[in-house]
Amino acid sequence: MSGCAAVNCSNRIDKGYRLFSFPKGKRGDKWVDNMRRDKWTPTTSSRLCEVSITLKIRI
């Protein structure tokens, strides 16, 4: 099952949360910077849940 890539977040699809792929370009770079994870790069399967996007990323 897919889960959220945010630190300390255990939200997953099977728990009823929506997950979103990282966008490309400047918006995706902003998401990664706002996650505050050192030396981490999202893969094509990395996702963020709706809660983490709202609380951590603040798009």
Question: Would you kindly provide a written description of the structure presented here, covering whatever features stand out?
Answer:
With 59 residues, the protein is of the alpha+beta class. It has one domain. Helix content is 32%, strand content 10%. The chain contains two helices and two strands. Strands 1-2 form a two-stranded antiparallel sheet. It is globular. The model has no long low-confidence stretch (mean pLDDT 88).
List the topology elements.
Blueprint: E1 19-21, H1 25-35, E2 47-49, H2 50-57
Antiparallel strand pairs: 1-2
* Total helical elements: 2
Low-pLDDT sequence parts:
none
Compute the average pLDDT.
Answer: 88
What is the helix/strand order?
EHEH
Shape: globular
Beta-strand percent range? 5-15%
Query: Nearest-angstrom radius of gyration?
Result: 11 Å
Helix content: 25-40%
Sequence of strands across the biggest β-sheet: 1-2
Structural class: alpha+beta
How many structural domains? 1
The count of β-strands is 2
CA-CA gap between termini? 25 Å
Largest sheet, in brief, is: 2 strands, antiparallel
Pfam families: THAP
Keywords: DNA-binding, Metal-binding, Zinc, Zinc-finger
GO molecular function: DNA binding; zinc ion binding
Protein name: THAP-type domain-containing protein
